[in-house]
Design a protein that fits this description.
- The complex is a heterodimer of chains A (about 170) and B (about 425).
- Helix content of chain A is about 40%, strand content about 10%.
- Chain A is an alpha+beta fold.
- Chain A folds into two domains: about 60 residues, Orthogonal Bundle (Arc Repressor Mutant, subunit A); about 80 residues, Glutaredoxin, CATH 3.40.30.10.
- In chain A, strands 2-1-3-4 form a four-stranded mixed sheet, covered by helices on one side.
- In chain A, α3 crosses α4 and α6 runs parallel beside α7.
- Chain B folds into three domains: about 230 residues, Rossmann fold; about 80 residues, Roll (Ubiquitin-like (UB roll)), CATH 3.10.20.600; about 100 residues, NADH-ubiquinone oxidoreductase 51kDa subunit, iron-sulphur binding domain (de novo design (two linked rop proteins)).
- In chain B, a hairpin with a 6-residue loop joins β5 and β6.
- In chain B, α16 runs antiparallel to α17.
- Classes of the chains: A alpha+beta (about 170), B alpha/beta (about 425).
- Chains A and B meet through α2 and α5 of A and β3, β5, β8 and α13 of B.
C-alpha cells in the first residue's frame, strides 16, 4: 500500500490521532497505547514506515527506538509495505497434517511469491501464521479479513486465478 | 444433557444479540450476583470447584481469593482481564464461545469483576478473531445502553468499564504475565512470579486473568449454584468442558460435554472415529504443548487429574490426532518449529534451546540424523523441560510432545536414522 502524500508523512491524521487518543484515555501512561497506536496507523496506511513510527513515538512521548523494539516484536505489525490483502496461511500442526505445505506451494507458484513477499501487482503478501483456531476445518487461511476453511487446490485456483494474474 | 455454555449456540453458528440473550434467561445470573456480597459470590465459585479452562486447571475461586479486598487493598484500580488470545495449536474452542455468545462472556466478566472488586475489565483478543472482537464491542455498547455496564450497574452502586484490546500477534501473549506486559503496550515478555498478578499485575495493580471458557461459566454458577455445577461433571472435576478433535477423523469439531467424558466417547462417538483408511497412532489431549497419549488411554476420563496421572495434561481439551499416514517426527518437528519461532527470546534455554531441538529434529526428519541425536533430544527434554530452568512455561510445554514422542514413537525416530530418510516420505 502507498505511503500518504509526502507532506503528511511526518504527521498523524486527525482520524488517527482521535483513535489513538481514545486508547490513551484509559491508560495511566501514554506509552501504554503503543500497540494500539501502531495498529491504528497501520489500518490507515497499510504498514508502519520509519516516518510513521517516528510520528507515533513522538505522540506517545517515547523514543522511536523503543517503539520499534515493540513494533518488531509483533508479527502483525508490518514494518515493510504489504499487499492490499495479506494472506495468513496457517502452518500449525492440524493444518500441516491436512496439507498446508501443498497449499503453500500452490500459492507460491500461482502468485510467484515466497513467504514474506508481495506479488508484483501489489495485491497479495504471503505470510505464515500460527494456529488460526479453526482446526476442525483444516487447512485454513485468512485472506484479508476472510477466513477460508477446508481449503482445497480448486479453491486456491478460484481465489487467485483472476485474469492477468501470474499463471492465470 | 445440560449444556449451559452452548445453549445459545446453533449449528449454523449465528450469533445471539443482547435481546435474544436476555429472552433466553441471560443476565439473570448478574441480577442474582449483584444481590449477593462479593464474598458470597467468591464462595459460590470456590464451592463450584471450577478450574481454569485455559490449560493449567488452577482452581478459579482460589485464584480470585488472592486479590486484596477492602482495607487490605491500597486505593486505585483493580483489573479483570479475559484471555481471548486463543493460539495454542489445535485449539478452537474459545472462538466458538466468543463469536456465537459474546454476552455469556460479558455477563461472566461483570460478575467476576464484581467479585474481586475490579473497576476496569479488558478482553485481550487475538487480532485474527476480528469478527468476535466486533461482536464483543457491539455487546459492550449494548450493555452500556441498558445499564449493564458503566457506572452504577442496575442501581447496585457497582461500576465497571470494559474494553476490547485487539492484539498484534505472538503466541506468548497467552501467558498471563506476558499478556499483561502486552496490554501495557510493551513487548510480550513474561514476568517473574512472585509478585503474582493477583497482587501486582496490570500497571502494578491487582489483576485477574482468566480464559474465555472459564469466565463463560461464571454467570451460570452464580445463578444455579455450586452444587448444580459439581453435579455436571462425571468425575471429581466439576462442570462441562468444551472438547474438540482435529486431524484425520470423520467428523472433526468442538462439543460441550460433561467434564470427565471418556476420551473414546469424544473421539469415536462425537468425532466419528478415524477417517476411512487411517489408523490411530496417538493424540495430544489438549493442544500442542501436551504429552502424547495412545490407543491404550482411550478409556480414560478427560479430566485434569486423570489425564495428569496418565502422564499428560488436559490442557485446552482439544485433541490433535496423529494418524498412521503422518510421520510422528514431522509432527513433532512442526510443533517444535512453532515453539522456537514463538519464543519471546528473554531466556537462553528457550531462545537458543528450542531452535537447537528443532534443528536436531529437522536433521532426523531429513535423513541426516545420527544415533546420538536421540540422546541430545533426551538431554534437551530433561534440561529445558524442567520448570524453573526457564522464565515461563513455554519451553517446558514445547518439550512435552517431544518427550512423549521419544517414548511412544522411538522406533520411528530410529527408523529415520537407520534408513537415512523419512520412511513416510519414501513411501509417497
Amino acid at each position: 500500500m502507498n505511503e500518504p502524500a509526502p507532506s503528511l508523512i511526518n504527521a498523524l491524521s486527525e482520524a488517527e490521532l482521535a483513535a489513538i487518543d481514545a486508547e490513551i484515555a484509559h491508560m495511566p501512561q501514554r506509552s501504554g497505547a503503543a500497540i494500539d497506536a501502531l495498529k491504528i496507523v497501520q489500518e490507515h496506511r497499510g504498514w508502519v514506515s520509519d516516518a510513521s513510527l517516528a510520528a507515533i513515538a513522538d505522540h506517545l512521548h517515547m523514543s522511536a527506538a523503543e517503539l520499534d523494539g515493540i513494533a518488531t516484536f509483533y508479527n502483525l505489525i508490518f514494518r515493510r509495505p504489504v499487499g492490499r490483502k495479506v494472506i495468513l496461511l496457517c502452518n500449525s500442526v492440524s493444518c500441516w497434517m491436512l496439507g498446508s505445505d501443498c497449499l503453500t506451494q500452490q500459492i507460491r507458484d500461482r502468485l510467484q511469491i515466497d513467504f514474506g513477499e508481495t506479488s508484483k501487482d501489489g495485491e497479495y503478501t504471503l505470510l505464515p501464521v500460527t494456529c488460526l483456531g479453526a482446526c476442525d476445518k483444516a487447512p485454513v487461511m485468512l485472506v484479508g479479513d476472510d477466513l477460508h476453511e477446508s481449503v482445497t487446490e480448486d479453491r486456491v485456483r478460484e481465489l487467485f486465478d483472476q485474469p492477468g494474474a501470474p499463471n492465470g | 444433557m445440560d449444556r449451559p455454555l452452548t445453549r445459545n449456540i446453533h449449528a449454523d453458528r449465528r450469533p445471539i444479540d443482547l435481546r435474544g440473550y436476555r429472552d433466553n434467561g441471560g443476565y439473570e445470573g448478574l441480577r442474582v450476583g449483584l444481590g449477593l456480597s462479593p464474598a458470597d459470590c467468591l464462595q459460590r465459585i470456590k464451592d463450584s470447584n471450577l478450574r481454569g479452562r485455559g490449560g493449567a486447571g488452577f482452581p478459579t475461586g482460589l485464584k480470585w481469593s488472592f486479590v486484596p479486598m477492602g482495607e487490605d487493598c491500597s486505593p486505585g484500580h483493580k483489573y479483570l482481564i479475559c484471555n481471548a488470545d486463543e493460539m495454542e495449536p489445535g485449539t478452537f474452542k474459545d472462538r466458538l464461545l466468543l463469536e456465537c455468545d459474546p454476552h455469556q462472556l460479558i455477563e461472566g466478566m461483570i460478575l467476576a469483576a464484581y467479585t474481586i472488586g475490579a473497576d476496569v475489565a479488558y478482553i485481550f483478543i487475538r487480532s485474527e478473531y476480528h469478527i468476535a472482537a466486533q461482536r464483543l464491542r457491539e455487546g459492550i455498547v449494548d450493555c452500556e445502553r441498558e445499564g449493564l455496564l458503566g457506572d452504577n450497574i442496575q442501581g447496585s452502586g457497582y461500576s465497571l468499564h470494559m474494553h476490547v484490546h485487539a492484539s498484534a500477534g505472538r503466541y506468548i501473549c497467552g501467558e498471563e504475565t506476558a499478556l499483561i506486559s502486552s496490554l501495557e503496550g510493551k513487548r510480550a515478555n513474561p514476568r517473574a512470579k512472585p509478585p503474582f498478578p493477583q497482587v501486582s499485575g496490570l500497571w502494578g495493580r491487582p489483576t485477574i486473568v482468566n480464559n474465555v471458557e472459564t469466565l463463560s461459566n461464571i454467570a451460570h454458577i452464580i445463578e444455579r449454584g455450586p452444587q448444580w455445577f459439581n453435579d455436571l461433571g462425571l468425575t471429581e472435576d466439576a462442570g462441562t468442558k468444551m472438547y474438540g478433535v482435529s486431524g484425520r477423523v470423520k467428523n472433526p469439531g468442538c462439543w460441550e460435554l460433561p467434564m470427565g467424558t471418556p476420551i473414546r466417547t469424544v473421539l469415536e462417538e462425537y468425532a466419528g472415529g478415524m477417517a476411512d483408511g487411517y489408523e490411530l497412532r496417538g493424540f495430544l489431549p489438549g493442544g500442542g504443548s501436551t504429552d502424547f497419549l495412545t490407543a491404550d488411554h482411550l478409556d480414560l476420563a478427560m479430566d485434569y487429574d486423570t489425564i495428569g496421572k496418565a502422564g499428560s495434561r488436559l490442557g485446552t481439551g482439544t485433541l490433535i490426532v496423529l494418524d498412521d499416514a503422518t510421520c510422528p517426527v514431522g509432527f513433532v518437528k512442526n510443533l517444535m518449529d512453532f515453539f522456537a519461532q514463538e519464543s519471546c527470546g528473554f531466556c537462553t534455554p528457550c531462545r537458543d534451546g528450542l531452535p537447537w531441538s528443532a534443528q536436531v529434529l529437522d536433521d532426523i526428519e531429513n535423513g541426516q540424523g545420527k544415533p546420538e541425536d536421540l540422546d541430545t533430544l533426551e538431554r534437551q527434554v530433561e534440561f529445558i523441560g524442567a520448570i524453573g530452568n526457564t522464565h515461563c512455561a513455554l519451553a517446558p510445554g514445547a518439550m512435552e510432545p517431544l518427550q512423549s514422542a521419544l517414548k511412544y514413537f522411538r522406533a520411528d525416530f530410529e527408523a529415520h536414522i537407520n534408513q537415512g530418510c523419512c520412511p513416510w516420505k519414501a513411501r509417497q
